[in-house]
Amino acid sequence: MNPKEIEKQIKKNLPDCIVTVEGEDGRHFSATVISAEFIGKTKVQQQQLIYKILAAEIRSGDIHALSLKTLLPENAQNHG
To answer: Which SS3 state, helix, strand or coil, does residue 78 take?
Structure first.
């Protein structure tokens, strides 16, 4: 699995999002997802949404580890 495949899967399910995924070994990844879908959700709920989108890849072992950062659009300008 590569970062672009993960980005594509997240964007397919959250079309409004801005997503960046990094990972060099094909199994351990770091992702930042910015989406209005997160409005009104706790950080845990935001991350659960992403993990649900990637559940098949996680179960199959294609994604062994995923470090996840979720942001609301209004907080994205402070990111980085």
So the answer is: coil
